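Hi all, long-time lurker, first post. I run a small reading group and we've been trying to get comfortable going from sequence to structure in the token notation. Rather than ask abstract questions, I figured I'd post a concrete chain and ask someone more experienced to write out its structure so we can walk through it together at our next meeting. Sequence below, copied exactly:
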Amino acid sequence: MINLPTFTKHSLFEFLSQRFKEEDKKLSQIPNPALLHDAPKAAKKIADSIKEGKKITIVGDYDVDGVSSTAIMVEFFRQIPYPLETIIPNRFNDGYGISPTVVDRIDADLVITVDNGISAIEAAKTCKDRGIELIITDHHTPSEVLPEAYAIVNPKLLECEYPFKEICGAQVAWLLLGLIKKELGLSIDMRQFLDILAIAIIADIMPLVDINRTLVKEGLRVLMCSNKPSSIIIRDFLNKSSITSEDIGFQIAPRINSAGRLEDASIALEFLTAKDVSSAYTQFERLNSLNELRRETEVQTTKEALECVGANDSIIVVAKEEWHEGVVGIVAARLVDAFDKPAIVLSIGNGIAKGSARSVGNVNIYTLIKKSEHLLTKFGGHKMAAGLGLQKKNINAFRVAINNSASKLNPNDFIPKDKAIGIISSEEINLELLNLLDSFEPYGEANTRPSFFINDAQIIEVKLFGKDKSHSKIIVRQFPHERKTIELILFKKVFKMPSEKKLTCSYRVTKNEFNNRVSAQLIVDKIY
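-- Answer (accepted) --
Happy to help. Here is the structure in token form:
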């Protein structure tokens, strides 16, 4: 760590510029949606169904991407206008995605899945038996055997010629709607959905390069001026002159996610599609309460999970009876942060374990899980995150098998991508630095906000703040020769002054807006 370069603003600008080989794409340069395999066929079928007055049902998913995909569909169909039924499976009663039990509740001529369905072999059979036509739109990695559907729109299909594969479920849905608009000769402006689309791209941790970067940039602009009730509430809640991808990732996405995690995703869908500000506010308050409950549950589960980690495992696999199914994904992410290793957290109930996996560095967790699929009842996902189910009796065999598969990987694959890039002197930390960093927004997957390193800084003072004094302000002098001190913020942790009064950590420089004053805020990422 100590061999890191020391940056000036000029050398930092040069360093960050190297991340982007070419200029940002314009919206007009987004590849033609017709390049998505089966998309023109699917668009024609949906347009014909609308013309013929057929019953259409959308089946979404309970995470942010799935709810956003469904919300964009709802908003689009409202403008035709055309009646649309929506179902978002309940995590606890239905499990993930479209399933035979979900199909049993549907009364429709045509079912369209968004952000799910690529592994729904049984549900597709049930649709066929009932004479329901099925169109699957998804972005998760397909298996060798595909469901039998009228059309499957997924950029990860081998035969799909769409040039940019790393798009989320909401993007697939939005691109398909562009084709439906054309089929029906409508004059709907597709940019109006970019606020919801940006939230989905950020929350689903899509790489913020190429068209994703363009859509998020534009989507955050739309979010700042949209008269959509949900966007008005988000702006009001964040109360900032400009909204960043990190505001969405840390503040908004967890709230939208909390509905599906703890109760029912319909609350989040009602928020995103609210017709007036009052309704949007009511649902947002519910999301806030659920998010608080999610936090408490997550803290307790993380504490218990930390005690179960096997020290010698390359892939952490922990399981316990009655852990809350809705927080296992977040707990897996916490374990990844704590150990810099991929983590799988399983909740056991009635002899069945269900859980989530999160990865690190360049480890493809989906591929690793797939190698042990003989031990699983179900699994799905992508490179950085996955979901899985197995019988309780197979947990240990699975842990051994996945660690065995991981032992064949290159050790460099396990190095986290968001390590500190270098050191920056305290004198350089000012509004000019903040503006420089802002120019490389939006930050996220594949364009992480730069993290800087502090080594053996002298701690001058520690102050606790927040209503329950659960956050820490650490004032340090970075180098003995510097007169200037800097203030580091450590959220959700009480920092105790170490005996040697020294601090080694990584931190990010972010914008703090308070009482119309803008200042640079240094947020601690990791204490070493």
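A couple of things your group might point at:
The chain has 16 helices and 17 strands.
The mean pLDDT is 94.
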